[in-house]
């Protein structure tokens, strides 16, 4: 099954909890990642409290992972800021990867990993694709990219069919999901 995951903007914005709730309830996303790299624990907790409890089980945290236990979230996402899940965590674990070597290293330890940037970024100017179509095709043939590897970076709703055809198990969308 192909999954679509939406990632929040790094900063907070008015109506964000309502928008997150709508995206999940409309089925636009399988999961939603809350990525607020400079936010305090209290700011993240406040956002989580504004999201209805029935939607929280579809949320993944990039930071302040212990809040995932407190609020009954779906998962935690590892990265350079938070490289380990919280003690006692039994839910989903995912991780950001930026090379095929990282995918090989981390895929076995995670439910899924993201690989980026696949396309030129929508939300980060100057952040360009790091892989050719042939490199991606070869990684699929070699079993590196499979159902547990999700494309990130420049992925839009219009490109979901392309991402699926490339051999990824899912897509992670940031910029395109928050366009006004």
Number of strands: 8
* Rg, alpha carbons: 16 Å
> What fraction strand?
15-25%
Q: Would you list the SSEs in sequence order as H and E?
A: EHEHHEHEEHEHEHE
**Widest sheet: strand ordering:** 1-2-3-4-5-6-7-8
Helical percent range?
Answer: 25-40%
Q: What shape does the CA trace take?
A: globular
Helices, by number, come to 7
Q: What is the averaged pLDDT score?
A: 93
Q: Low-confidence parts lasting 5 or more residues at pLDDT below 50? A: none
Structural class from helices and strands?
A: alpha/beta
Distance between the terminal alpha carbons, to the nearest Å?
29 Å
Biggest sheet features: 8 strands, parallel, barrel
Provide structural commentary.
With 180 residues, the protein is α/β, with parallel strands linked by helices. The protein has helices spanning 16-25, 41-50, 53-56, 66-71, 100-106, 133-141, 160-166, and strands spanning 3-7, 31-34, 59-61, 75-78, 92-97, 112-115, 149-152, 170-173. Strands 1-2-3-4-5-6-7-8 form an 8-stranded parallel barrel. The protein is globular, with a radius of gyration of 16 Å.
Give the SSE layout.
Elements: E1 3-7, H1 16-25, E2 31-34, H2 41-50, H3 53-56, E3 59-61, H4 66-71, E4 75-78, E5 92-97, H5 100-106, E6 112-115, H6 133-141, E7 149-152, H7 160-166, E8 170-173
Parallel strand pairs: 1-2, 1-8, 2-3, 3-4, 4-5, 5-6, 6-7, 7-8
């Amino acid at each position: 099954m192909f999954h679509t995951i939406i990632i929040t903007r790094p900063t907070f914005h008015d109506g964000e909890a309502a928008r997150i709730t709508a995206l999940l309830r409309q089925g636009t996303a399988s999961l939603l990642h809350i990525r607020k790299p400079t936010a305090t624990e209290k700011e993240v907790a406040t956002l989580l409290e504004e999201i209805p409890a029935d939607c929280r089980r579809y949320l993944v945290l990039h930071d302040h992972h212990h809040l995932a236990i407190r609020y009954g979230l779906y998962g935690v996402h590892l990265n350079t800021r938070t490289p380990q899940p919280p003690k006692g965590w039994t839910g989903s674990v995912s991780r950001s990867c930026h090379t095929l070597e990282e995918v090989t290293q981390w895929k076995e330890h995670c439910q899924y990993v993201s690989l980026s940037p696949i396309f030129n970024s929508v939300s980060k100017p100057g952040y360009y694709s790091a892989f050719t179509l042939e490199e991606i095709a070869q990684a699929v043939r070699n079993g590196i990219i499979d159902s547990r590897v999700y494309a990130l970076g420049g992925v839009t709703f219009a490109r979901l069919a392309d991402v699926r055809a490339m051999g990824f198990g899912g897509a992670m969308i940031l910029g395109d999901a928050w366009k006004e």
